[in-house]
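Hi, here's the filled form for the chain we discussed.

Project: internal
Contact: R.S.
Residues: 369
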Amino acid sequence: MSAEIMQMRRKRMRGVALGILAVGLAGGVAACGSAEADGADPATDQEHFSRVINVEVMTVTPEPFVEEIQVTGTARANRDVMVAAEESGTIRKVFVDKGSHVAAGQPLMKIDDRILAAQVEQARAQAELARQTWERRKRLWENDRVGSEIVYLQAKFAAEQTAASLRSLEARLARTTIRAPFAGVMDDRTVEVGSMVAPGQTVARVIDLDPVKIVGGVPERFAADIRPGAQATVTFDVLEGQRFRAKVSFVGSAVDARNRTFPIELVLPNRDDLIKPEMVANVAVVRRVVQDAVVVPQDALVRVEDGYVVFVVTNWNEGPVAEVRPVQVGSAQHNTVVLEKGLVAGEKLIVVGQKSVADGDRVKVVEEH
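And the returned structure, exactly as it came back:
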């Protein structure tokens, strides 16, 4: 038994001794035959020397306890792409302004295509001539055996070559229209009408904001507890009152050597675009759920030399008294703590006044939570 508990026991014994002394004094006065002593009440004198402390209690009831890991995360766009030109030329038209929502494949801007369009017409004519020549050579050679095989093969490969050249030019012509790679928002545009662009030059930025990803780092000591599919709650300081439920969609396989954390990702719907990329998120990931746990307020604990104790109200002959209980503390969350040992269901735990009582003190329950 710890020194604090022994001291509480001694304090209680001193209170009992004072009560006995008070009774003895009252009896001595009565033996002297004083008229005033004849009317004295020994119980009243005992109450004068034995203090009664007002306390508030709660009934210990087993309940589920959810232990969470608090992580700071950052919002990221689901997809964030810098759109580049694939052909060289001058920007002739801009179809979409910055900040506009775009659909997948929607035209964003147009590069001057007049030279390529002419080349396509020329290639189309050459391909048509080569095709008709091949068909005639084919009939003459295969049906009537007119001509030579080499001329037959030359016509065949010429038709295939010109058709391939036409397809190549048509693809280049189609690329003069710069399109959105996916549905989202055109967040930026780096060129204007009249700007000269080259293949690979960035012309716009398209962001997909629905859904968004929340990226955070979890300390490595929780590596065995976090798996894909774990439940989580996400809040943002700038979005007061907004709480988002999500599941962990990705858990990193490696620990960052710089901060000893491993990455996790969650996906949140963002239909109203309230969540912006790079917003700071508060992520609470469920580590485990303890069923039928003894959960008490942290303030009910009293620190002693070798751990913690709590006080419960028990009924003795003289009435309700405080009784000290050493406890084993488990997980803590949101100003509550799980007690692994020391309390059982149904006991009356002192939650207000526990720092003013000692083991064996008489108490009066003024409120029960």
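Let me know if anything looks off before we file it.
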